[in-house]
Structures are given as structure tokens and as C-alpha cells.
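The freezer alarm interrupted the setup, so I double-checked each line after restarting. Inputs confirmed:
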Amino acid sequence: MEKPVVLAVRDLRTEFGPAAHPLVAVDGVSFEVREGEILGLVGESGSGKSITLRSILGIVQPRGRVFGQILWKGRDLAALDETRLRAVRGREIAMIFQEPMSSLNPLLTVGLQIEENLLAHTDLDARARKARAVELLDMVGIPAARSRLGDYPHEFSGGMRQRVMIAIALASNPRLLLADEPTTALDVTIQDQILRLIQSLAEELGMAMILVTHDMAVVAETCDRVAVMYGGRLCETGETAAVIGDARHPYTLGLLRSIPRDVPPRTPLYSIPGAPPALSAMPAGCAFTARCPVAGSDCRDARPPLAALSGGRHVACHRLPEAAAFFSAREAAR
Amino acid sequence: MPSLSYLLARLVQIIPTFLLVMVFIFLIVRLLPGDPAIAMAEAKATDAQIEQIRRNLGLDQPLPVQFVVFVKNTLTGDLGRSIMLKAPVTEVILARLPTTIFLALYSVVLAICLAGPLAFLAAARANGAADIAIRSVFQVGLSMPVFYIGLLLLTVLAAKLRLFPVGGYGTSFLDNLYHLILPALSVALYTSAIILRNLRASLIEVLDADYVQFARAKGLSPRIVMTRHVLRNAMVSTVTLLGLSIGNLMSGTLVTETVFAVPGVGRLMLEAIFARDYPLIQGLTLTFAVLVSVVFLLTDVVQSWLDPRLRQS
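Predicted 3D structure, all chains:
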């Protein structure tokens, strides 16, 4: 039996700049997250992944404008005012950021930064808050947690700071964790530790998670389902194994072909030509047109809908057969 | 809080500063052209009388001996007698000092009250209409010398509109606030222009910082995000600048107090210079050095209280 949907994002659109000529960072994005599920949100820098997460929490405002529906357990967060939203933010839905070095306030002790979260979202008294803070630091694997409450962020290493940030995010037992590239800024050896930590905590606490990353290997290792983003739009979604094993969208295919997998040394990898379009230069049609090996004249003008395939998968592409043919011909040529 | 050892270390650092200041004061006065003994003597004094004065002042001794005597006297609070006022220098300075300190604090408070809220307003909508208006007005303030702002305020607010007194000093605290508003304001306009620029820039930077976004994502109230996370971080660099400009402001009192006829140590310094009252000039220079050092010390203490990374002594 499938678990119930906790978060349903419908036609999310996030704009910046003047209302007459807006820069659209997220454009018509829809997805669902089920209870206890880990959804991977994949894409290059600037594809709108982080803005999507920040839109869900309503922290892109006042500079950004958010449209569409963000249904959290049936309640539309996009329609809530700032005060009501604050009761969800950090309490039911928490977020961790990419940069552990700059995401903790350098002037405040780690203990205070955990406790202010507890103060905002729980009824615990000072003594209980302190006990809970120790418990949280302990839970994320910080040695001698009790003695470290009075320490400042600069007294921790990068990996330890990321653990502190996770502890802060988990302080009020959130039901959904938004993780914005939580391992990108860390050493490779630490990346794996942190990823495992997040994964095991999510499982232990029965917490759903959206994991933003640009690393397909991370997705393969941790996520139940994956949504691939490009130019502020979704291009492909589905079960992780299905998407990675049988990608359909030319962008996903390109991403996967650019990762070395079972190839002899010195085999040239596929690389997607060009760079993502600027927000101010998005084509009316498919955002990937300019870099797509199989794009036709219709791709630039007509936007492909995110169409359902079998097995709960969705792909937004006008040229699925051509894409499949192009990439299988490349495989065969090897 | 900064540790006691940090405070002590910082205090010890002041000692060499003071020694250097004393060497400078001592030498400058002795290297200046003009003989203080002649200046002190009556016009028709004989050579013998002048020699007597020189002996009384100890000016016939070799320089190193004079210096040791000078340091010893200074440390015991004896700064000599003012030639012009015919009274002990220490007494004269102590009588005038409160006025200057009051004026300095008054203008700093005014500057913070002016610059703080406006910097917030400007930073909240960077490059918006309010931001541009605020910055242009204060740019004008910054490009005018303090004495000119002072004269403008005097002419318009005091002489034409008769809203405030032209000068002088009051008898009670409130009276002082009223009497000193124009000099305080003219200094404050300049200082606040500097603070505003700096605070606006750091606010814009901090508002965008990851830790502020993270604080918002934690669901903290806007008040806590603003005070605990934004303001405190933005203040770190502004406090340094404020300390420096208060130091600067001390020497600025020379001009302001003269323009507004405020009986403080600044105006006293100017009078002492014109009268070649060497003991008084020495004493006042030392007083300014002490004031500036105390301000810098306080700045460092506040900074290390704000920023734990500065606490390693």
C-alpha cells in the first residue's frame, strides 16, 4: 500500500525582479512527497532547485514572488500569511543549507542556536531545552556534546558544523526535511558520513525529505524517487531505479552519460554541450532546446507538457523516440 | 563576555602608547620656537628675572632630567600651572572636561539615532527611492566640513528662526541638552553620514547571509532574526568605525566649541595655543590622548563582546 502524500506542490512559480519583466526562477513545477519518502531534486546550478526549496518555506519573499499551490497535509502554504507560515517553518518543515561554514551565525554559541529553535517551537523550559540540545548534538554524532554547547561555530570543523546544522533542523521533530546540497561543500570522506547520517535519521524519525543535489551518485544511493530539473522546470520524474536505469529525457540521459560507469580507462565521457540559459533568456518552448542533441524547430516554441508514462513516470519532451535512438546509437558505437 | 585576561592584556598595551605620547608632548613643546620663560615674564622684566623664571620651571636642567621630572609630575597629576589662567593646569582641565565629554556623548547618541534607523530603511530596499534619497542627503553632509555645517545651523536655526540658542552652556542636564543641540547636531550630521554608509553596506551584506536565511528557515520571529542575527553581525564593523570617528571627533571639538562658544577643553586648547601657554597645551594634549585611548579601548572591548572570534588574546 502506498503511503499518504504529505506535500503536494502544484504549478509552483517563483519570480524575481520587476513584475512587468520578471525573472522566472521556478516555472510550473509540480511534484509530490509521500510520508517517510526521500525525493531527490537533481539539476545543474541555477536550475531552480534551491529556489524551489526556499519557496516551499516561504523564505524567498519579500524579494521573490511565489505562485501556485504548496499543499502541506492539505493546507496551502503559499496562501498563508507570514505569521501562520512561521508556525510551520522550522517546526513541521525544516531546512538545512549547503554551506556549513556560513550558515551558522558566527557570533552565537551553538547551544543558543539550537535552543532558540526549541524556544520558538516548543514549550520546554530552559533546563529541558538545554537537555534536548545535548540530546540532539549527541544524536548527530558530536562527541562530548554537553561540553560543546557553549562553543562557537568557528570552533567546529566543516563536517561538525554540518552536523550541528542538522541538529538544529531536527530540534522540533519536523515531518519533512528540505536538504539543500548538504554534502556539496564537504570533503569526500565526510560527504558519505553526513549522507548516511541524514538517511538513517530520516528513517529513524519517519521523516520525509527532499534532497537537492547535482550528484546522480548521491541520488542513486539515497533517494526513493527523483525529479530532474532544468531551467526552472521539471523534465523527468519517477522511481530512482527506473529513471537511472531507463532515462528518457535527453537532459537526464546526458547527465547519466557524463558519469563514468563500467567503462574502460580513457573512454571519453559524454558532456552536455553549452551552458544553461540565463533566466532572462529562457525560450518559450523547452528550456533545454539550445543544448539538446535531438531538438527540432518545434521544441523552441512549444513547451512540452510533463506527460505520464507507465509506472508513475513523467517526462517533458517532444522527441522521446529520437532521444532514445540518439543515445542508444552512442552506446552501440562504443 | 571578553575574559579578564583579555581586558588586562589590552590595558597593558596602553602603557607604551602613553609613554610615546609623553615623549612627543615633551619634545614638541621644547622644540617649538619661542621661549616660554620670556612669554611668562612681564614685558619689562630683566634678564635676571627671566633666568629666575627659567630656573623655577626647571628649563635650565638637561633634557633627560626635564623629561623624568615631567613624567613624574604627570603621574602624580601635577601638570604645572597655566600661564594664561594663573591656575593649576589639572584644575583648569578638569573644570572644562565634563562639558566636552557631554558634547561628545551627545553628538554620538544623536549620530546613532539618526544613522541607525535610516540605515535600516535604506538597506531594506537597497537602491529603492528611499535608499537613494537618504544616501544623497548624507553624501552632502559628508562633503561639508563640520564648522560649515555648524555655521549653517547657527544662521538658520538660531539666528533666523530663533529656535535654539546661539551658543553657551546650560546649568542643568536638560538645559545642557537644549544649549548644546546645535554643536552636537553639526558634529552628529558628519559622524552619522559615515556610520550610515557603513551600516547600510553591512546590513545589505548580512541580510543576504546564509545564517540569516537559515534563521528565517528556523521559523524565528522577525524581531529575533533582526536583532540577534542581523543587527549584531552588521554592528561589528560599524563599531570599529564609530570608535575611530569618536577619536576623530575629539579633535573636532576644537572647531565646534569655538564656533558655538562652548566652554570645553577644545576651545581651551585653541586659546592656549594662541597664548603660548605651554603647560596648558601639554596638559590638554595629554588629556586628548587619554580620551582617545579610552575610546579605542572601549571599542575593542565592545567588539570582542560582539564577536567571539576576536577574543583570543
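Quick read of the result. Chain A touches chain B through 31 residues (CB under 8 Å).
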